[in-house]
Design goal:
about 30% strand, alpha+beta, Glutaredoxin, 2 domains, Jelly Rolls, 18 strands, six-stranded mixed beta sheet, about 350 residues
């Protein structure tokens, strides 16, 4: 095993910050994990890049937990609902995450690692030093080689498996990654609303759909009200969102209601109709969260996969909703296609 990937023993990993621990019977400490290798994954359950990294983390858990590797997820929330325990517990269950997760609601662990990105992975050796780190997607083979190098440093006689093959076709050598439409926020903070009326803080606005719609923004029709993080439907009939884009996949962070109390009082699922290029979304382009009838059933705050195009393509997506209180937080996109 070549350990040239590893950093020298210079920077010690900080202690975990305060927060609730999930998926474990007792809180963990970095000092208490000394003597074993530790992989810290700073993530967020509505982040598309974090979700695309999870299959590799789960496989590494299966491969190396019994060989001395502890994986710890540090959930640092992007949106206010991400600070709530129940939605995060639901995400951990739905995503089948097998390792402990720390709720880093006050960004204490994020700041302790001087972190800047979701997701970020830090590999810590048995003496407590950060030996390898990675930000964003990709580089899975190198990260697994670093895991093996750290484990072998302390126990050269370990019988380790070959580095696994890519789990997705678009992760394989030869895949082409185009630059998709950038992530678009929906709320007042850095929002990408393209209607000429713009945003109004604290009051609903009745929007009309402009004829000229450009990529890099989304457009609404009907009554909508903006918060710092979101845009919520405030009308009585129908709200429409149009999104010109260029991508393979389109995802949206949605919720049936912004406030926790409202979600408890009104637990009904919100149905959102999805069209593409003014036609029902064809089966060949349907995202994982779209029903055969072309609807997304929004039952909790999370990321929903709306479209999976066969290739990197240009389209205009339309969302139609009739449920007052429904809210959009952001759109995200992917641009990698499998090799020929």
């Amino acid at each position: 095993m070549v350990d040239s990937l590893l950093n020298k023993r210079q920077v010690r990993a900080p202690e975990f910050g305060r927060g609730q621990w999930l998926n474990t019977e007792h809180p963990l400490t970095m000092s208490g994990l000394r003597g074993g290798a530790v992989l810290v994954d700073i993530w967020e359950y509505t982040c598309v890049n974090c979700l695309r990294t999870l299959p590799y983390l789960k496989e590494w858990y299966q491969r190396y937990a019994h060989q001395g590797l502890t994986i710890v997820g540090v959930h640092t929330p992007e949106f206010r609902f991400g600070r709530e325990r129940q939605p995060l517990e639901a995400a951990i269950h739905d995503l089948d995450i097998p390792y402990p997760v720390l709720m880093d609601n006050n960004f204490e662990t994020w700041d302790a690692f001087a972190n800047r990105f979701w997701p970020s992975k830090y590999l810590i050796d048995q003496r407590g030093y950060i030996r390898y780190q990675s930000h964003g997607e990709g580089g899975y083979g190198d990260f697994e080689r670093a895991i093996q190098a750290v484990l072998l440093e302390e126990n050269p006689d370990l019988d380790l498996p070959p580095v696994m093959q890519p789990l997705r076709e678009e992760d394989r050598p030869g895949a082409v990654c185009y630059r998709p439409t950038p992530e678009l926020a929906a709320g007042l903070r850095n929002g990408a609303l393209g209607n000429p009326q713009g945003y109004a803080s604290g009051a609903p606005v009745f929007y009309s759909m402009p004829d000229n719609r450009l990529r890099g923004a989304f457009y609404t029709e009907g009554a909508w009200q903006a918060g710092n993080e979101f845009l919520t439907f405030a009308g009585q009939s129908e709200g429409v969102i149009r999104l010109p884009y260029e991508a393979v996949d389109v995802n949206a962070v949605l919720t049936p209601h912004v406030e926790t109390v409202e979600r408890m009082l009104h637990p009904q699922t919100v149905s959102v109709e999805i069209w593409q290029d003014d036609r029902p979304l064809p089966d060949s382009h349907r995202g994982l969260d779209v029903t055969p009838e072309g609807r997304v059933l929004v039952d909790q705050p999370r990321m929903y996969n709306l479209v999976h195009n066969p290739d990197f393509e240009q389209h205009e997506l339309t969302l139609r909703v009739r449920s007052r209180g429904f809210a959009l937080y952001s759109f995200s996109f992917t641009g990698c296609v499998r090799p020929d």
